[in-house]
Write a structure and sequence with these properties.
251 residues, alpha/beta, D-Maltodextrin-Binding Protein, domain 2, eight-stranded mixed sheet, two-stranded antiparallel sheet, 10 strands
């Protein structure tokens, strides 16, 4: 009889624990990114752009509640390191960062390009040719860390949009930019014909980087959702949604 009672109590305990686990709601993920049009930007109160639309669609397909917030890059990145419910995008996956996050992606790619004033007519055949120049970077981002680690003379800015201004004012010789192929970013900023690419020094893929505490089950669902977007062409449609972003309308 005692054995039967103990078994019954264990069964009831297991059932209660299982019910409690099932009732436990999934975390609402806090997704952070930076202002970097056309990848992420505010439209009214909504964060939109190539990266933001991609990540939002991933969350919708994976049935994950979420909030997206636009922050300065360092705050966005630090939040994903420190908050257990947070993922940051679009994040370059480097060996130094590999163990810090759970990675979903890639969700996009870009070229790292050294930009210069057109009137200086600089010619670079390799990254080493840039060692004699002062390079403007975005403080704390992957390009900044990459060049610092290799001993280049960098001049970091708290906002990447300051670098083209610094370039035009001759405060730096080069600007280490991250640009999607075919992008009209420079033209949109009003520097068409004034700032030109002089060297592509890396091609990178970017990811959604999640805090290590985000459950594997959630990141797994994100990966499945992303694969479905690749298969049905959604990723390309999102990419082309912004082809004409910033291009003045014809009159």
């Amino acid at each position: 009889m005692n054995t039967i009672i103990v078994a019954a109590m264990l069964a009831l305990g297991c059932a209660a624990a299982q019910a409690q686990a099932q009732a436990q709601p999934e975390p609402r993920l806090y997704l952070t990114t930076e202002a970097a049009a056309p990848h992420s930007m505010l439209e009214g109160k909504r964060v939109v752009g190539i990266g933001a639309d991609t990540v939002r669609e991933i969350m919708v397909r994976a049935h994950i509640a979420h909030t997206i917030e636009l922050l300065p890059w360092k705050r966005a990145y630090t939040a994903a390191l420190e908050r257990q419910d947070t993922c940051v995008f679009s994040t370059t996956r480097t060996p130094e960062r590999e163990a810090l996050f759970k990675w979903v992606g890639p969700i996009g790619e870009a070229d790292w390009v050294l930009m210069a004033r057109a009137d200086r007519k600089l010619r670079l055949n390799s990254l080493d040719d840039a060692r004699r120049y002062r390079i403007g970077t975005y403080n704390g981002d992957a390009r900044d860390l990459y060049l610092r680690a290799r001993g280049f003379d960098v001049d970091p800015a708290p906002n990447d949009l300051l670098n083209p201004r610094k370039l035009m004012a001759n405060r730096i010789d080069l600007w280490a930019a991250s640009i999607r192929r075919g992008s009209a970013t420079i033209d949109r900023m009003g520097y068409a014909g004034k700032i030109v690419p002089v060297l592509v020094f890396n091609n990178i893929r970017v990811y959604l980087a999640c805090n290590q505490a985000v459950p594997d089950e959630l990141t797994g669902r994100m990966g499945v959702a992303l694969e479905s977007m690749e298969r049905d062409g959604s990723l390309q449609r999102i990419l082309h949604r912004y082809d004409d972003y910033g291009v003045p309308a014809k009159r």
